[in-house]
């Protein structure tokens, strides 16, 4: 049996450009794509994972209750950038069993868990 690996995450948002601008504040670099007759969307590659942002065409295809996580460096700076881009801080930085982490909502209601890479080795 081969190991399982996550290789794709898709968020649907009502404003593509605002979402691209927001997630770019984390350092993601997006390119515009369209496959066959599908809608234009944006994709960023993160190692072996593709992170895509698609247009939300109805409330039924909303992904706003999805929670995603990013391991980053310099948590405080990232929070400031994301708040300036419309993010809402839900839980300020604090140590956890997974390192220093904070929770922020993107402008569309997706919950984002941010973990500071260097802090992951600190004791709780």
SSE topology sketch:
Layout: E1 8-13, H1 16-24, E2 31-33, E3 41-46, E4 49-55, E5 67-72, H2 75-84, E6 88-96, E7 99-105, E8 111-116
Parallel strand pairs: 1-4, 5-8
Antiparallel strand pairs: 2-3, 3-4, 6-7, 7-8
* Number of strand segments: 8
Main CATH class: Alpha Beta
Tell me the strand percentage band: 35-45%
Uncertain regions spanning at least 5 consecutive residues:
none
The topology string of helices and strands comes to EHEEEEHEEE
Cα shape: globular
Radius of gyration from the alpha-carbon trace, in angstroms: 15 Å
How many domain units? 1
CATH superfamily: 2,3-Dihydroxybiphenyl 1,2-Dioxygenase, domain 1
Largest sheet: 4 strands, mixed
In short:
The chain has 124 residues and is α/β, with parallel strands linked by helices. It is built from 2 helices and 8 strands; from the N terminus they run E-H-E-E-E-E-H-E-E-E.
What does this structure look like?
This protein is α/β, with parallel strands linked by helices and 124 residues long. It has one domain: 2,3-Dihydroxybiphenyl 1,2-Dioxygenase, domain 1 (Roll), CATH 3.10.180. Helices cover 15% and strands 40% of the residues. The protein contains 2 helices and 8 strands. It has helices at 16-24, 75-84; strands spanning 8-13, 31-33, 41-46, 49-55, 67-72, 88-96, 99-105, 111-116. A 4-stranded mixed β-sheet has the order 1-4-3-2, with helices on one face. Strands 5-8-7-6 form a 4-stranded mixed β-sheet, covered by helices on one side. A hairpin with a 7-residue loop joins β2 and β3 (41-46). It is globular.
């Amino acid at each position: 049996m081969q190991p399982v690996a996550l290789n794709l995450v898709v968020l649907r948002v009502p404003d593509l450009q605002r979402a691209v601008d927001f997630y770019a504040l984390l350092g993601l670099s997006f390119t515009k794509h369209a496959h066959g007759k599908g809608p234009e969307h944006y994709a960023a590659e993160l190692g072996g994972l593709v992170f895509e942002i698609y247009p939300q065409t109805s409330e039924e295809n909303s992904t706003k209750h999805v929670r995603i996580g990013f391991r980053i460096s310099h948590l405080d700076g990232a929070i400031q950038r994301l708040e300036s881009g419309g993010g809402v801080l839900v839980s300020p930085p604090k140590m956890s069993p997974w390192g220093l982490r904070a929770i922020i909502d993107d402008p569309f209601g997706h919950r984002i868990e941010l973990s500071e890479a260097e802090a992951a080795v600190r004791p709780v």
